[in-house]
Design goal:
There is one protein chain. With about 190 residues, the protein is mainly α. It contains 9 helices and no strands. The chain folds into 2 domains: about 70 residues, no CATH class; about 110 residues, no CATH class. α7 packs parallel to α9. The longest helix has 26 residues. The protein is elongated. It holds the Pfam family Sugar_tr. InterPro entries: GLUT, MFS_dom, MFS_sugar_transport-like, MFS_trans_sf.
Length: about 190
């Protein structure tokens, strides 16, 4: 039933496409990109209900004043800009390192369990995104980055230990899977 699983994401995308026209544009987009003050206020009321959004509107106006001379670039212009190459390369390497590291293959599990491990990896990535986005303002990026790397190093030591013991104790293979999930969560929270 893998085809049903794959079509589920298409169904979600179709539902989003059907309902998207009924939602307003984001207020920052309307004000900062389009310069539509009335549309911005209307979108705020539509999204957040009736109320006084003077403070939020003033913050957007300040941001508009600050970014007045800044040119908005599309994706191709960003990719052609040499000044952002170090950031793009760093981001690409970080994303590829998790995808190509082969952590899921290290657990030495039966083939019938591998789909569940893949599902667990996806859930771990989702958990890390939700968790990181909720704590990043409290702790800051530097703390999450350093803590993430330290946690990843500790988990890798534990993972190596569990892999060495997996031939002697079969239950250690499942500990390896849990450690892989924790590694992905630490990776998502930090790097």
């Amino acid at each position: 039933t893998w085809n049903v699983l794959l079509s589920f994401s298409g169904l979600v995308a179709l539902i989003q496409l059907l309902f998207l026209p009924f939602f307003p544009e984001s207020p920052p987009y309307l004000l900062l990109q389009k310069g539509d003050k009335a549309g911005c206020l209307k979108a705020m009321k539509q999204l957040w209900g009736e109320g006084n959004y003077h403070t939020e509107f003033e913050d957007l106006m300040k941001e508009k004043a600050i970014t007045k001379g800044t040119k908005i670039m599309n994706v191709l212009e960003v990719l052609r800009e040499p000044s952002v190459y170090p950031q793009l390369i760093t981001m690409l390497l970080l994303l590829l390192s998790l995808q190509l590291c082969g952590l899921s293959a290290t657990a030495n599990l039966r083939e019938s369990i591998i789909p569940y491990v893949s599902l667990g990896v996806s859930i771990s990535e989702l958990i890390s995104v939700i968790f990181c986005s909720s704590i990043i303002d409290r702790f800051g990026r530097r703390m999450l980055l350093c803590g993430g790397y330290l946690l990843m190093a500790l988990i890798l030591v534990l993972l190596e230990t569990s892999l060495l013991l997996s031939d002697q104790f079969l239950w250690m293979r499942y500990c390896s899977v849990v450690l892989i999930f924790l590694f992905i969560i630490a990776y998502g929270m930090g790097p």
